[in-house]
Description:
CATH class: Alpha Beta
Oligomer: single chain
Number of helices: 9
Strand order of the largest sheet: 11-10-8-6-5-4-1-12
Amino acid sequence: xxxxxxxxxxxxSFHGAWFARRLADGFALVRNPYGGKPYRVDLAAADGxxxxxxxxxxxxxxxxxxxxAARPFVVQYTLTGxxxxxxxxxxxxxxxxxxxxxxxxRFGPRAVVWRYDPILLTAATDAHxxxxxxxxxxxxxxxxxxxxxxxxxxxxxxxRRRLDAAGVDWRDPALEEKSALRLELEAWAAAAxxxxxxxxxxxxxxxxxxxxxxxxxxxxxxxxxxxxxxGHRPGCLCAExxxxxxxxxxxxxxxxxxxxxxxxxAVANLAKMKIRIEPPVARGTAD
Length: 287
């Protein structure tokens, strides 16, 4: 069994102490996001872990402990470098780039995947922005990662409300435009020594992503980890996993986020859990 931690929140950024306690106890009780009873996930029996994060620095001791215990993991590390109006409290590009390099140097390049995800088209982040931004980030991550995952933003109803409330001039581009941009990004990724994969959007072409990837975990572990493909939605190539996160518990403040309905509510939820939120590092001109 592979444990996903978590596409519902950023456990390494905000819930590392909770995860360490759950790991020590060998299990996690997880609130069912669709109603019904909480479910139990046996962490002691996990074959490997996939962490989803924008900031693993607070989580370094946990990662070191997992590596020392020969418990394999992969970090899906999101770095987009968007303006603060779109992601108000994420770490700076400099911080994220340095952390991705640290992860690769400490645990190997197969242990970290860069996510340029989601691609959001706005007046401030048009196709020209994405080409220049992606190219600059890919160059800075050269040698640290061998794969970059992209997807185009799904504009769910709650996402639309948040974008509109923030005054973001956004648009959902036509499929042809998405496919053309994917092709250009793919070429720049290849030039930087990375394979570009697309998360659950087969209609834009390219190679499909397996974000929860048993083969990559096997490479990290140095032994086979078997898990059947069991995607979360059409086009998803992820291996079967159990997620242990909770929605509305991430304070990064990304206006395009599908996992947080209200940023202020998420901050309040973290305050109730007595989780201190570090202010983001100020962005430099390179951001």
